[in-house]
């Protein structure tokens, strides 16, 4: 193999494990074949502006454990539908050819894209235009059906579990009900796993619509049994029966334009007149993405990084790394994201909690209520 030049970018939201993938990818590529690596800053924006940094053992030293991304993140830069100013007016244009010209100018012949649905949709579209692309899936929500596990999920579960434990002590001290909002969008994996591990009393997930009466029933049962406090863990996209998810804001120029938020406050306001306890709410928010990456996620990220390097070596372009049956494999980006039009964000295969699955049964057997 002749010397390759590899570009890497991290698109969409940040996730613990991105740096670990970069760290491992750099080292494994350099040990497998003759290459140079660069990292585009702020995702596709860096590709458009030709803004990059050199990636080598020195520039990536000490990042294995760190959350976030040394290449930074942006979830607003779809180069196939990019906001540009012409004659003082904002217009949307396909500027992907500018990005391709930048790669050719720098001699980049492989682009490794770390991201979620929106980021990988653009990766698929670049592949259609002849770019040698390899995708690495990223989401703390663990909601991609094409892979068994995504890095960042374990770290998020650990953080939520730790915070539920901390909230238990203050809830017990004041005999309060605390409603804790966690990330996950329309998938309840983080809330379910952390709710079991963190001894939540009520777990509310999007896959099982809840009722306020169901929550009240559990709180009253605990009070009657000498437990005058409760922890309610709720996924940001949870849905009340005959209701809809609470939308915090809409961001028009983002692939994930609908931002959930506010469900914990809504539930707390509805609960307080119905129970004999003070009810407070707490939004964990971006704390779930921050800090050090868990050991399990570092190992998983390393596996993703090494597999991506092997795919570059073998010329397996147009594919995404995935974990299947415990083994690192790959799947075509077209199969993951579908055959939508260029520039159209695909909704990827969603992996959601089975309401009748084992983990839900485990939680119920432990006495956790889903208020269904």
Summarize the structure.
This protein is of the alpha/beta class. The protein has 11 helices and 15 strands.
Description:
Helix 1 (about 20-30) packs parallel to helix 9 and helix 5 (about 155-175) packs across helix 6. The radius of gyration is 22 Å and the shape is elongated. The chain is an alpha/beta fold and about 375 residues long. The longest helix is centred in the middle third of the chain and has 22 residues, at about 155-175. The protein has helices spanning about 20-30, 45-50, 95-105, 115-130, 155-175, 190-195, 210-225, 265-270, 295-315, 335, 360-365, and strands at about 5-10, 35-40, 50-55, 80-85, 90-95, 110-115, 135, 175-180, 200-205, 230-235, 245-250, 260, 280-285, 320-325, 325-330. The strands form four sheets. A seven-stranded mixed beta sheet has the order 3-2-1-6-7-14-15, sandwiched between helices. It has eleven helices and 15 strands.
């Amino acid at each position: 193999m002749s010397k390759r030049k590899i570009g890497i970018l991290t698109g969409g939201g940040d996730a613990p494990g991105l740096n670990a993938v970069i760290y491992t990818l750099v080292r494994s590529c350099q040990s497998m074949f003759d290459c140079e690596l660069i990292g585009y800053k702020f995702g596709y924006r860096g590709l458009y502006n030709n803004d990059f940094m050199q990636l080598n053992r020195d520039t990536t030293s000490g990042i294995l454990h760190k959350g976030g991304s040394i290449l930074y993140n942006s979830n607003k830069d779809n180069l196939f539908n990019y906001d540009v100013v012409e004659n003082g007016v904002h217009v949307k244009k396909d500027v992907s050819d500018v990005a391709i010209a930048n790669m050719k100018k720098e001699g980049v012949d492989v682009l490794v894209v770390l991201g979620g649905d929106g980021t990988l949709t653009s990766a698929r579209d670049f592949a259609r235009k002849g770019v040698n692309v390899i995708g690495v899936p990223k989401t703390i929500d663990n909601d991609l059906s094409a892979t068994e596990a995504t890095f960042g999920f374990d770290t998020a579960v650990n953080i939520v579990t730790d915070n539920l434990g901390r909230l238990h002590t203050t809830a017990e001290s004041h005999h309060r009900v605390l409603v804790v909002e966690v990330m996950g969008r329309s998938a309840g994996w983080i809330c379910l796993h952390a709710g079991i591990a963190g001894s939540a009393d009520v777990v509310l997930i999007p896959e099982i619509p809840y009722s306020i009466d169901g929550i009240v029933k559990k709180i009253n049962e605990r009070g009657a049994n000498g437990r005058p406090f409760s922890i309610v863990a709720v996924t940001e996209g949870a849905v009340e029966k005959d209701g809809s998810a609470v939308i915090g804001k809409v961001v028009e120029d983002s692939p994930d334009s609908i931002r959930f938020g506010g469900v914990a406050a809504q539930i707390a306001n509805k609960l307080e007149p119905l129970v004999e306890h003070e009810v407070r709410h707490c939004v964990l928010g971006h704390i779930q993405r921050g800090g050090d990456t868990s050991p399990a996620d570092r190992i998983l990220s390393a596996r993703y990084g090494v597999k991506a390097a092997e795919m570059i070596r073998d010329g397996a372009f147009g594919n995404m790394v995935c974990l299947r049956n415990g083994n690192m494999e790959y799947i075509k980006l077209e199969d993951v994201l579908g055959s939508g039009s260029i520039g159209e964000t695909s909704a990827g295969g969603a992996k959601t909690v089975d309401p009748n699955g084992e983990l839900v049964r485990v939680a119920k057997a432990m006495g956790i209520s889903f208020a269904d």
